[in-house]
């Protein structure tokens, strides 16, 4: 795919940037003439500016060493949210920002190749770890297959013919799969019937494997709309990527194993992108007569040894039957979710959260809420309906962030819905039911696969609860896994030790020719029987590399934010950005650097947004003698600014999962829930054939806050946050330039990229950091990211009367989406050097960050100087809009 045209950094870029007219704008702003160039007057003497001489800014107050390895992902600044409840349905009823270039299947291949490089491992004991079901049931399935397939009975293997084309394999493979599938269904039904004492047992629906090679599986994403998996097993429901359980890829030659892995990776991405409730998933490929089972999770790929379905048919039968007999959790579904097919044939999602999560919420509606014991578990829960997908990172591995707007479902509403689905209601009855229903309560639920060695975002938000420009925290916890304690906890939310996380398997192997999936595989619509590169992937060796350890976590807040690009006027937009900067300033004063300022992390609040806590009105005014003087003075300045605003925030800064501490505060004492204190965060080990994990959970005592938070499940962070403004440290000599997070790196890790954030919004200095080079991340880098956020938002805005951005704006978006960080750094340097753009905020912020990032990169800058200047610049711009 061709890259966007990018002029040389040495040549000035002359562009004309029209004044952006926001939707339904109600205020006017002072604008320069429409023909204004971003260059100074041509008659004025020009200066030659260069990129920063050194990427290492002098250590100063508000900087931190960073060692968070990040890898390219599918996160893009232009990703729109999806429509209500549907897994991937896109909005069509409101304008969207412009984008640098569409995400196509070719671009998707780039993403999956990057994120899976070095994360593909061969597990020689795969079936023992994951596919070893109940022996009695497996024997019954094997016997059923013997009775229903003559070849299998006589030879012990499945009939796979010698073939010349791939399509020849489809029917014999499909027949074998469905015989095993039917056998599993019969066995499960007979056991369920024996366990059911009623006379009205109805066997569940059991869809069979289906040939989908002739047409694409329906998709909501452009990048996956042409994917045609050869065979799929669907859940009960319409054919769509949101209902695919197991994808299967067929290749005619054994040497096409690597190509098959790439195809399966495409299918895995499609499934993760369409299924909100997927934690991990299984797929399978059959190359010639050899079957390979593949497990995709947020740490990459694990795959099994090859099984010859002709020579070792019984081994294959038992492995597949074990997969088909897995419970929902082991198969990779998040069991707090339930789904229902709506009238449009799409899935609606419902979520059950524990009642204890809302202990701190004083809701008069609690008595009417959908509080009920979870099935067979005795845990009180509240049911919520997913109303909107605010963020959904479509990557296979990584943090895989999903952010949902959820609305509480009440008992009366549930009853009304049941009636409407079973029989018709008169208009009067329906109207009366709607009037009697209590007002809905909404929250935002974030689901993320976090690094347990890093600080927990939930802990950060709990410490920042109630501050101006920051989310209103409610609850957080690590997702419960299947309890392996003795005796096991009877309640899903009752065990604090067993959490859901990526598996860590010992004695893994790698194939040097399958460390990545960088191989050419034609698009599915180009040819039916492509000639692929044959790669020998049969040789393995042990490796010192380990899989990335991630823990699945939930974070719940009551602040409902809309994307910043939905602002209805320039004033609303700039005000929200100002409030987010004030929120960042508040976090900074408590020792926190955000490190991921982007368009997706600055949110717009509704005018009627409920604000349960206004802690910013109750800040301390007494300066502790042993607290860093600069931070205390910075806090005083911030309080003065917020007090003068005399209003609630209209925007917030969210998403602190890449945060780092910039103050040397001592870690809190650890209170253990078990009797054996660990020396470090332990990695999970497989403890059963189904891949269930044991992982003790640590609990940290709250160390700050004037009011205790409601009881909640703690997370396995290396240390809970300690507020430098409200906690007395044991070491009085604070060094704000030291990092709080550990600098230890595993010896067996690859060369890493220490930079964090979304490249389009990274500061010029961060972009110039070389891969493998640690650096000091400064608050100046984060503040400069706010500037690039404003630039991107202005360029990306499309008026309601337009359909595409202007050529100038599109060129700017392409510059902000350059995959070469060096070129992007040069482009940004040029913009900072020559940027008399229309708004006074952009002009003055551009001049400020031109000084800090380009002309004075080595000069120390005090937050007592920089924060007030940034706030004043935006406030002055807002005052000119009056």
UniProtKB/TrEMBL annotation:
<dbReference type="GO" id="GO:0004519">
    <property type="term" value="F:endonuclease activity"/>
</dbReference>
<feature type="domain" description="Fungal-type protein kinase">
    <location>
        <begin position="742"/>
        <end position="793"/>
    </location>
</feature>
<keyword id="KW-0540">Nuclease</keyword>
<dbReference type="InterPro" id="IPR008266">
    <property type="entry name" value="Tyr_kinase_AS"/>
</dbReference>
<dbReference type="InterPro" id="IPR011009">
    <property type="entry name" value="Kinase-like_dom_sf"/>
</dbReference>
<keyword id="KW-0255">Endonuclease</keyword>
<keyword id="KW-0378">Hydrolase</keyword>
<feature type="domain" description="Fungal-type protein kinase">
    <location>
        <begin position="236"/>
        <end position="615"/>
    </location>
</feature>
<feature type="region of interest" description="Disordered">
    <location>
        <begin position="667"/>
        <end position="748"/>
    </location>
</feature>
<dbReference type="InterPro" id="IPR018247">
    <property type="entry name" value="EF_Hand_1_Ca_BS"/>
</dbReference>
<feature type="region of interest" description="Disordered">
    <location>
        <begin position="1"/>
        <end position="103"/>
    </location>
</feature>
<protein>
    <submittedName>
        <fullName>CRISPR-associated endonuclease Cas9</fullName>
    </submittedName>
</protein>
<dbReference type="Pfam" id="PF17667">
    <property type="entry name" value="Pkinase_fungal"/>
</dbReference>
<feature type="compositionally biased region" description="Low complexity">
    <location>
        <begin position="23"/>
        <end position="46"/>
    </location>
</feature>
<dbReference type="InterPro" id="IPR040976">
    <property type="entry name" value="Pkinase_fungal"/>
</dbReference>
<feature type="compositionally biased region" description="Low complexity">
    <location>
        <begin position="724"/>
        <end position="739"/>
    </location>
</feature>
<dbReference type="GO" id="GO:0004672">
    <property type="term" value="F:protein kinase activity"/>
</dbReference>
